Amino acid sequence: MDLSNLLAGFSTALTPEHLLFAAIGVLLGTAVGVLPGIGPAMAVALLLPVTYALDPTGAFIMFAGIYFGGMFGGSTTSILLNTPGESAAVVVAIEGNKMAKAGRGSQALAAAAIGHFIGGLIGLVLLVLLAPVIAGYAVNIGAPDYFAFMVLAFAATATVLGSSRIRGFASLLIGLTIGLVGLDQMSGQARLTFGSLQLADGIDVVVVAVGLFAVGESLWVAAHLRHTQDKPLSVGRPWLGRADLRRTWKPWLRGPLIGFPFGAIPAGGAEMPTFLSYTVEKQLSRKTGDWGKGAIEGVAGPEATATASAAGTMVTMLTLGLPTTSVAAVMLAAFQQYGIQPGPLLFQREADLVWALIASMFVGLALLLVINLPMAPVWAKLLQIPRPYLYAGILFFASVGAYAVGGEALDLVLLFIIGVIGFAMRRYGLPVLPAIVGVILGPAAELQMRRALQISDGSLTGLVNSPLAIAVYVIIALLLTWPLWNKLVRAKKQNEPDRVDA
Fold first, then answer.
1. What are the counts of helices (DSSP H) followed by strands (DSSP E) for the chain?
2. Which of 50, 61, 73, 235 can bridge 360 by disulfide, Cβ–Cβ 3.0-4.6 Å?
3. Residue 155, exposed/middle/buried by CB under 10 A (0-12, 13-18, 19+)?
4. Distance between CA atoms of residues 329 and 41, nearest Å
5. Closest Cα partner for 255 from 94, 409, 101, 121?
6. Whole-model pTM above 0.70?
7. Nearest-CA neighbor of 25 among 76, 52, 59, 53?
8. Spatial separation of the C-alpha atoms in residues 77 and 92, rounded to whole Å
């Protein structure tokens, strides 16, 4: 652990000005994340333009607060309204909403808040320990290796998310197509600009993210809006008794051990580890007898897992420049807005900024716990806003944010065109994350592929001329063929009893 750099980061993050930015970020992130249907990714995308007026250090300190505040808000919505803001919060809703209906919503919120803090704290410690080491090894990674990692991110996000692989790859294709808009980075030839000079620089990632998440979700909710709305449950002041603490402290500690490794691998995400954490806690605490009726372990473990997984995604994003979740993709866009490219040299070129960002995440977690535990009833009242007004406000702020990016009316047109695409993706069950990853990584993958081919004089062997690239392609092959092998094994096992009976 590089204590000197971390302490320097804390000295920057703990100044009164930056503490104020962190507190504002936590409040904004939680306020937006707690609204129905709005997850951390949408909260971060909506509030990204808010940070543009700040210097990079202040902006990213506020961004860290928004990041963790949005995640906490998503779990609050899951517990109170059984409306997960993102897929990672689905597991928390299974037992958390049952607790709320049983009059234990305060305990569920407290277990989620403390689990969020502990999981994030352990995950950030592992981030501090591992990120510089990985960055040191990543300096020696060449163009073929980077291209292989990006293909792995494409394959993993397209195959893991969504109801089918075809839908995942269709979403990825949409993102790659949007990423092609603009001038070719090497030849300067215009692509998909339709003669518009304003599209020569491509479509801003913030416009794409806000369009797919905020506008697409708003149109989807408007299309299915009901005239009746369930009243939010009473929350009260969160607290945990001794019996609850005895049942939750072990899940809080086990969760990060499950979540961080999944978050650190390309396209790991928090969906799989949260379900795994739920399964583990259910197997280890069957004696409590209230699983399916509101077991507090089913809230504490998955919430700590999800936050530690989010810290793990920062390792891949900061050291390799690969966003493995929707939130990481929007954060990568924020770095690019300031002309900063995450990667192996980030810890050398922007050491002060990176360590201040990491330190501010520790500060943001502490502020989140202190501020939001007593304010849970306030967030519950926000949920009483009628949905027509709620999503009308989201569309307004999304439009203002998109226009603020470039100050061009064309950005508003693109925002709503992409929003309609996002609505259509939801209509046909296409996941949004592969599209975002395609927009972010598509141009970079093309550039690395061309560099590798130039070095090898156009030979395709230039893409597989290193042991690391070969190993990554083997992983990709296993990822793509695993369902087929799994089906063959199951079919073989089903046929064996028939042969015995015959």
1. 21, 2
2. 61
3. buried
4. 9
5. 121
6. no
7. 59
8. 10
Q: Phi and psi at residue 191, in whole multiples of 5°?
A: -135, 125
Rounded Cα gap, residues 17 and 77, in angstroms: 30
Strand partners for 190: 183
Structure tokens at 154: 């494409």
One-letter amino acid at 319 equals: T
Residues 6+ apart with CB under 8 A from 157: 168, 172, 267, 324, 431, 433, 434, 437
DSSP 197-243: GGGTT---HHHHHHIIIIIHHHHHHHHT--S--PPPPP-------HH
The DSSP code sequence of 42-100 is HHHHHHGGGGGGS-HHHHHHHHHHHHHHHHHHHHHHHHHHS--SSGGGHHHHHHHHHHH
Where are the chain's structural domains? 3-465
Q: Cα angle vertex 187, ends 181, 189, to 5°?
A: 45
Distance CA 160, CA 104 (A): 34
Q: Environment class of residue 107 by beta-carbon count within 10 Å: exposed (0-12), middle (13-18) or buried (19+)?
A: buried
pLDDT tens, residue by residue, 154-208? 887 677 555 677 888 888 899 888 888 888 777 777 887 777 777 777 787 778 8
* Cα–Cα distance for residue pair 434/250, rounded to 1 Å: 35
Residues pairing with 191 in the sheet: 182
Alpha helix stretches (DSSP H) within 240-386: 242-264, 271-284, 297-320, 326-337, 346-349, 351-372, 376-382
Q: What is the pLDDT of residues 334-368, one digit of tens each?
A: 787 788 878 777 877 888 888 888 888 888 888 88
